[in-house]
Design a protein that fits this description.
By secondary structure, this protein is mostly beta strands. The chain has one domain: Immunoglobulin-like. It contains two helices and eight strands, in the order H-H-E-E-E-E-E-E-E-E. The protein has a five-stranded mixed β-sheet. A three-stranded antiparallel β-sheet has the order 1-3-6, with no helix packed on it. The chain is elongated and about 45 Å long. The N terminus is likely disordered. Bound molecules: fe (iii) ion. Fe (iii) ion binds next to loops.
């Protein structure tokens, strides 16, 4: 069931058209599967993206995504962060490119990833994370590329 929800979330991202309102930071994806946010703790779930505001075309830079950066998310067998996914969408493009998927082992792995990325033009970076109890959460940042 959770995997199905995860795939649903990815499909939503992949199906976005340019200009759609996916970048509503701090919201969960999936419509009807979303319980009230105040019951779940936004600060424990929204993936925090650390990335430069600008970059040079074709030159690698690093993006870091962490869940529970300010308020730690539980990390037990019963309740933990399952994975983080990163996507990029170039400005004006209808396509969303998967940058990476990172799976975590409960109680041992801390849900934080850093990866090198190189962009060719202005882009939006999307981060998704999946809590095994509270489902999908997203965040995004825009990066100017010159
Ligand atoms: Fe949770």
């Amino acid at each position: 069931m959770k995997r199905r929800e995860a795939l649903l979330g990815s499909a939503i991202v992949a199906g976005l058209a340019a200009g759609d309102s996916f970048a509503a930071s701090g919201k969960r994806l999936g419509g009807a599967i979303i319980p009230p946010e105040k019951e779940m703790g936004i600060e424990k779930h929204v993936p925090i993206i650390t990335a430069p505001a600008s970059a040079k075309a074709g030159e690698p830079f690093t993006i870091t995504v962490e869940v529970g950066k300010t308020v730690p998310h539980p990390n037990t067998l019963e309740h933990h962060i399952k994975w983080i996914q990163l996507y990029a969408q170039y400005e004006g493009s209808q396509y969303v490119i998967e940058l990476g998927t990172f799976n975590f082992g409960p109680t041992v792995a801390h849900p934080k990833v850093t990866m090198p990325v190189m962009l060719q033009s202005n882009a939006t970076i999307y981060a998704l994370e999946h809590c095994n109890i509270h489902g999908l959460w997203d965040n995004s940042v825009e990066i100017k590329v010159s």
